[in-house]
Amino acid sequence: MKNPLGSGPPRTGLVPDAHLEKKQMSRLHSVHAYPPTVGMVKPKVIVMDHPMVMEQLSLIRDKRTSQIAFRKAIYRLGRFMAYEFLRTMEIQEFTVETPLGPARGGQIKGRERIVIILVLRAAIPFVEGMYKNFPMARTGVVSAWRGKPPDFPIEVNYTKIPEVGKNDVVVIADPMLATGHTLKEVAKRVVKQGHPKRLVFFSVIATKQGIDYVAKDFPRAEFYTCAIDPTLNDHGYIVPGLGDAGDRSFGAPH
Ligand code: URA
Questions:
Q1: Most buried of 29, 37, 48, 250 (most Cβ within 10 A)?
Q2: 3 alpha carbon to ligand 1 midpoint, in Å?
Q3: Residue 247 Cα, ligand 1 centroid: separation in angstroms?
């Protein structure tokens, strides 16, 4: 079936990803088939295509959307993605007593183990939305600057990452996973602080090229996104994408 948004993989409904734990899978709404690059481990990729996500994604793609509306939509996407992500966490089951008798209860386990890494500046509203569902998250901040093509050298000029424990779930948040150069550099700095139980990337739009680039060094990482777009232009921008996510949230610097 053709994707009505005109980009990303066709909407095929529930296509299980063999690398996802069965328990996680059963709790997720939707997973697209992700074609592996020959000779490479197939990364764990989850495309969140809930109708609420699709609406906000359409809004941020639209070039007429104002700065304020854009930022609010990124905030909502952070909130939705975090909400959906909680399905993949373990549940501690228990019995709860209602006034009329016992009932099954449950609590999300390890929510306090979530560490968010905010990649400046585009992730600011994204992470603000994520806090709605990860209120206890410890947070690291990284400021990274991507240089010119074809090598896209990454300059990291600020890093503040908390210590990472072996039971932590680290979520690296950047709305655009384009070439993957920035996120690979960020992830390298995260694992210097310790090796988490799960290393997760949250983006609103990703490319297969970018995911594969990061997954080559981080094969156990998980990639959650709202869309996978087909290409990058010569400047490393996602096409069709949405333009520069930082500029659209905060205004262009010049
Ligand atoms: N960063 C953006 O803001 N947009 C892109 O398309 C790629 C990287």
A1: 48
A2: 22
A3: 10
Give the distance between the most distant pair of CA atoms in the chain.
67
Identify whether 252 is part of a domain.
Answer: no
Q: Is there a domain that residue 75 lies in?
A: yes
pTM, 2 dp: 0.86
* Residue of 244, 247, 249 best suited for mutating to test ligand 1, as the one with most atoms within 8 Å of CB: 244
Q: What is the pLDDT of residues 42-80, one digit of tens each?
A: 889 999 989 999 999 999 999 999 999 999 999 999 999
**Structural domain of residue 45, as residue ranges?**
22-91+108-243
**Residue 253 belongs to a domain:** no
Position 103 scores a pLDDT of 98
* Residue-wise pLDDT tens digits, 204-244: 999 999 999 999 999 999 999 999 999 999 999 999 999 99
Question: Which residues line ligand 1 at a C-beta cut-off of 6 Å?
Answer: 122, 176, 178, 237-238, 241, 244-246
Q: Which atom of ligand 1 is nearest to the CA of 241?
A: 6
What's the domain count of the chain?
A: 1
- Please report where in the chains the tokens 């700065």 appear, as a residue: 67
Which residue CA neighbors atom 2 of ligand 1 most closely? 244
Q: How far is the CA of 130 from the centre of ligand 1 (A)?
A: 20
